[in-house]
Structures are given as structure tokens and as C-alpha cells.
Write a structure and sequence with these properties.
Length: 626
């Protein structure tokens, strides 16, 4: 049975009761929908869009965190809605600002990244007063300083009658974080379905998860031993200065090294005249981080990745502007010996052979299979793709992000789209993907997903697994190297995911209770205050406050907060100061790092002198912690 609606093309969308029920609930209140990957979150958005289009003055904003997702959603809506293609527009930074103003004015549905809309709101190209419905895709991003938070706040201030839908497959395991998302998006209703719910069960396919333990080859032992020696000497120094509690290699991890970095930076900031030893400690911490990273590469990725890592570091160290930590590492006798030793190694990490065997076996059992191999590192993805390309009937493609890295220019948006299309059309049957393939992208469902390494994030693990078992039974194989960080990451993600499942089971009741309590208090306050005039009712309406902001400050959080407060922001190229509050008041804003840098370089005194000469009330704001 298909959905029947004047705005949805006939016989195009299968009717599923749970989707209809969720959409009906979400049409009445601002709603967060949590639904496993592959069960049609975007279709729920489609039903609500179709319902909204029935209203005469409807205008819809569909937000997604990445450019590929924006084009995917725009294409999806064009395929399924009966309205003209011209009524649906995709906004990214590549559309010129002058064109965006006109396109916004004439469009019925705007699909955009949040940053583009945020920038246009700040520069007053348009506002959200005429938007009747906003969809926040991958709504778990709506925390901290992410643009979703700003847009939701502006929407609340600019439009009284509004509808919001947040959609996500993986909100995280922390109840307070989920509540933060709800608060930031003005959510008053939550719809959660798991694969165990009775109305969802008929549409869930079996997913088999297998983890394979891999042993490190004996040939890696000497390299690991050398790296451990190099790391150990630095950990002892960090322990001596109190940056870490223990120098034991078995107790140290990335988190503890990052905590040491925070301690050292805090000590530098707290001291009026930081001692040279503080900066030496910062260098030692940086060296420890880099060596620890190399150790993780040899243990979980292999010789090729470590070799490339040290080659890049060597090139960096040979440049005048290189960091002291890179130069120190490359001159360390243990590291030099390790580099020389791995040059002679002709063995690769056993995970590579395991991936090859897994792919061969899968394609021999079903020649039409589609496989995705996920790996965290680009070097690994390139190596695996090259090795798989040597095998008959294996048609591999590397699927990575757009960021340009040394020796690797990344994939453009068009190249990404072409690879996905070729994967759909069977020109490729194996994708070797980094994290870019985890979130939301319409990559065809596949029979098998391989994790080259486990990841500690339960959100990313769920998104990776969601690439299989969408339309048929699927399988996930997770490779774990024994006695390495792989084991810790695996158990961390498993523990967090288990906690997330139990939180999701409880959260419906908890959130409902909290929402009811909050709404009850709000309604009581409104009732008490409705007949009682306050001083504000008699206050003379003030003229709009205007602040002139330097162009370099224009994308800062300060400007976002000022905009939320209703202050008129005017960007200019300022020769002196960052903000002009009046003809008398000029403001220079600095964070702690900027302040220290300008103090050491001597620029600070020149800037303050210019500020004093230009304004009768000069102000210096120092922003930061500790």
C-alpha cells in the first residue's frame, strides 16, 4: 500500500504505520524523532513537508550538516514531491550571496547547510519570519556552538507560530546531552522507536555482528619496543613535573595526554611571567602525543601507515617553520632506529590479509554483493584499495572527505557523488571509506560492513552499521588486534551503546515528565502575569542598538550572541579595534592565546595606544578561562 497525498507522487512511497503515527504526532508539536538508520527518518520529514504545503503561506527550511547531504535531500524531495523543481532549492557556500537572497525569496523549500543560513542571517540578507517549518537533520549536532543552536534561537525570536522537527539515528548515551538538544531546538515532544518496537519489527532485517581477533606478527615487536622506549622517557619527564600521575605505559592513553596538555596550558596562562620550563613541558607533551599516535598506528594499522607518518614528520622537521617537537622526535635515536627497521620490513598488518579474505569469501558466495570497509585513516584506505584492486572480480573505490591533506587532495563533492552512483550501478562493489560515509549519505545498502578498527564513539558505530541490513539481512565484521588500543575502543563503544539503549528505553518517560513539569510551570507563570502590567508595559520603546563589528570578528560567537539579543550588527573593515559601540567607545577583544601572542610580539601596546588615541572610552576585553 502506498501513501496518498496531493503533494507526494502516486505509488512512490510505501505506507508504514509507525511513520504515519510519528508524523501525525510531530505535526502538532516541536518533535525530536529518534529512529534507527534505514527506517525512513527522511520520509517522516517528507510527510510533514507535504502536510505543510497544504497551507497557503508555507515555506520550509530543511537543514543538513554537510553539502553532500544537502544535495541528497534536495534530490530526494524533487523525486517524490509534485511541486515544481524550481520551488526546491539547495543552498551551499558555492551559491553566490547575491543569488541566495533572490532564491530564498522565491523558493517554497530551501535545503541548506546551517552555516550558510547563519551567515546570511548575520549579514541580514533575509530572516526566518516567513519560515513555517524547519527540519534539523542529524539533530544530535545541536549542542555547544554549532549553527543549529543559533538558528533555532533566532527562529524562536522571529516567528511566533512555528514547527520544528529534529531527526537522528544516534542521539548519544548521555541523557543530559539529549535534553540539551531538546532545549536548544525548542523540542516539546520526543518520538523514539527501536528495532524492538512492535510497529517497527516487521521492517527490521537481521544483522549479524562478528568480531575477529587478530594477533600482531612477531616482526612488529622490535618497532613497538623502540617506540615504547621513546615514549617512556617523555612520560617520566611529564610525571616529574606533575602533568601526569603515572608514567606507566599500560596506564597512559590519548585522553590522559590531552589532560596533561590542559594542565600545562593552564599553568602557562596562570603565570604572569611563565618560566621557560613550562614551554619545555608543553613540547614534551606534544612529543609524547605524536609518539603515542605512531605506536597506535603500528599496532592497529600497520607498517605502511607508520612509514608514511614518519616520512611526513621528517619533511615537516626539515622546514624552518617546523615545530620543535617534530625535530626532537626525528632526531631521537630510538625513533631513527625504528624508521630504519621498518624500511626493511616486508610484512604488513595481518588485518590487510583478513580484509582481502573477507572480501574474497563474500564475493565468492554472492557475486552481486556490495561491501563497505570502514577505516579511520586515509593511508590505510589507500593501501587497502590498492591491494583489493589486484584481485579478480573485486572493483574497489576509495571514498574519503574533501579536505586536502599532504599528498592526498581528497575527493570533491562531484567525485563523491560519482563514486556513490557507480557503487549503485555495480561499477564498484567495494567501498573503502573513512568517516565521511558514516553520516546520513544515501549510500546503497550493502550485504557486508567491515570495521578495520573499532571506534570508541557509539554514535559513529551505529551509523557505520546502519549501512547494512536496510533491505535485506546484513553482516558486520569488526577487526580487533589483541593487546592494542583496538580492544579498549571496542569495549568503550559497546559499553556506551548498551547505555544508550537503556537510556532510550527510559528517556520517553523521563522527557515526558520533564516536559509536562516545565510546561505546567510556564503556563502558571503566564496565567499569573497575563493581567498584571509590568514596568516593561509602560517602558518607552527604545531605538535599535547598533554595533559596528570588524569583518574579522564577524563569524565569532560574540556576534551570534549579540544578534540573538536583537542588536543590529554592521560589518566594516576597522583599522582600530574590533567593535565600535559609539563615537566614544571602541573595544578590542582578545582570547588568552591571542593576548599572549600579541603581548610577546609587542603588538598589544601598539593596538592599545591606537585604541586610546581613537576613542575617549577605550575598552580591552580579555576572554578565556583560568
Amino acid at each position: 500500500m502506498f501513501i496518498k497525498n496531493q503533494f507526494i507522487k502516486p505509488d512512490s512511497v510505501e505506507r508504514r504505520e509507525y511513520q504515519i503515527n510519528i508524523a501525525e504526532s510531530a505535526s502538532k508539536k516541536n518533535t525530536l524523532v529518534v529512529l534507527p538508520t534505514g527506517l525512513g527518518k527522511t520520509l517522516i520529514a517528507l510527510f510533514l513537508i507535504a502536510k505543510e504545503l497544504e497551507k497557503k503561506d508555507s515555506k520550509i527550511l530543511f537543514l543538513a550538516p554537510t553539502k553532500p547531504l544537502v544535495f541528497q535531500h534536495a534530490h530526494f524531495l524533487n523525486d517524490l514531491l509534485t511541486i515544481d523543481d524550481e520551488s526546491i532549492i539547495a543552498f551551499t557556500g558555492e551559491v553566490s550571496p547575491s543569488n541566495r537572497r533572490e532564491l530564498w525569496k522565491n523558493a517554497k523549500i530551501i535545503v541548506s547547510t546551517p552555516q550558510v543560513v547563519q551567515n546570511d542571517l548575520l549579514s541580514k540578507k533575509f530572516d526566518l519570519k516567513d519560515i513555517s517549518f524547519i527540519i534539523f537533520d542529524e539533530a544530535h549536532h545541536a549542542v555547544g556552538d554549532y549553527a543549529y543552536v543559533f538558528l533555532s534561537e533566532i527562529y524562536r525570536k522571529q516567528r511566533e507560530k512555528r514547527l520544528i522537527l529534529g531527526i537522528t539515528a544516534s542521539p548519544g548515551n548521555d541523557l543530559s546531552k539529549i535534553l540539551e538538544v531538546c532545549k536548544n531546538l525548542d523540542i516539546t515532544n520526543i518520538e523514539i522507536r527501536t528495532k524492538f518496537d512492535h510497529d517497527v519489527k516487521p521492517y527490521v532485517h537481521d544483522l549479524k555482528i562478528v568480531w575477529k581477533e587478530i594477533s600482531l606478527p612477531q616482526e612488529f615487536s622490535y618497532t613497538i619496543q623502540l617506540l615504547r622506549k621513546a615514549l617512556s622517557s617523555r612520560l617520566k619527564k611529564l610525571k616529574e613535573i606533575g602533568a601526569i600521575d603515572s608514567a606507566s605505559l599500560s596506564l597512559i592513553n590519548k585522553t590522559k595526554l590531552l589532560e596533561a596538555q590542559k594542565k600545562i596550558q593552564s599553568a602557562i596562562r596562570a603565570s604572569p611571567k611563565p618560566h621557560k620550563a613550562f614551554f619545555q613541558s608543553a613540547q614534551i607533551q606534544s612529543e609524547a602525543m605524536k609518539i603515542h599516535y605512531g605506536l597506535e598506528l603500528i599496532q592497529t594499522q600497520g607498517v605502511n601507515s607508520l612509514r608514511n607518518y614518519f616520512q611526513r614528520m621528517g619533511r615537516e622537521a626539515s622546514v624552518k617553520s617546523s615545530t620543535k617537537s617534530s625535530r626532537s622526535i626525528i632526531s631521537d635515536h630510538n625513533i631513527l632506529e625504528a624508521i630504519a627497521y621498518i624500511k626493511s620490513l616486508n610484512i604488513e598488518h595481518p588485518k590487510v590479509d583478513e580484509v582481502i579474505n573477507i572480501v574474497k569469501t563474500q564475493l565468492s558466495q554472492n557475486k552481486d554483493s556490495k561491501i563497505i570497509v570502514f577505516t579511520h585513516y586515509r593511508d590505510t584506505s589507500a593501501y587497502i584499495c590498492n591491494e583489493l584492486g589486484k584481485i579478480q572480480n573485486v572493483k574497489p573505490a576509495r571514498f574519503i572527505g574533501q579536505t586536502i591533506k599532504e599528498g592526498d587532495k581528497g575527493l570533491s563533492q562531484k567525485e563523491q557523488a560519482m563514486i556513490i552512483r557507480k557503487f549503485k550501478e555495480d561499477e564498484y562493489n567495494v567501498l573503502i571509506a573513512t568517516s565521511v560515509a558514516e553520516e546520513g549519505l544515501d549510500i546503497p545498502s550493502c550485504d557486508l560492513v567491515v570495521f578495520y578498527e573499532p571506534i570508541p564513539s557509539e554514535i559513529r558505530a551505529i551509523q557505520r552499521r546502519g549501512r547494512t541490513a536496510r533491505k535485506m539481512a546484513g553482516k558486520v565484521i569488526i577487526l580487533i588486534t589483541k593487546g592494542t588500543p583496538d580492544e579498549g575502543y571496542y569495549w568503550s563503544a559497546k559499553r556506551k551503546e548498551k547505555r544508550m539503549k537503556s537510556e532510550l528505553e527510559l528517556i520517553r518517560n523521563k522527557l515526558t515528565k520533564r516536559f509536562e513539569d516545565a510546561c505546567s510551570i510556564y503556563n502558571q507563570e503566564q496565567s499569573c502575569n497575563s493581567n498584571q502590567k509590568t514596568l516593561i508595559d509602560f517602558e518607552k520603546k527604545k531605538d535599535n542598538v547598533k554595533i559596528v563589528v570588524d569583518n574579522r570578528e564577524y563569524r565569532s560567537n560574540v556576534v551570534k550572541h549579540l544578534t540573538i539579543k536583537g542588536i543590529d550588527i554592521e560589518p566594516h573593515q576597522l583599522d582600530v579595534g574590533d567593535y565600535i559601540l559609539s563615537t566614544r567607545i571602541g573595544v578590542e577583544r582578545k582570547n588568552v592565546d591571542d593576548f599572549l601572542e600579541s603581548l610577546i610580539s609587542g603588538k598589544l601596546f601598539k593596538q592599545i595606544s591606537q585604541l586610546r588615541d581613537s576613542y575617549s572610552r577605550p575598552v580591552l576585553i580579555l576572554e578565556g578561562e583560568n
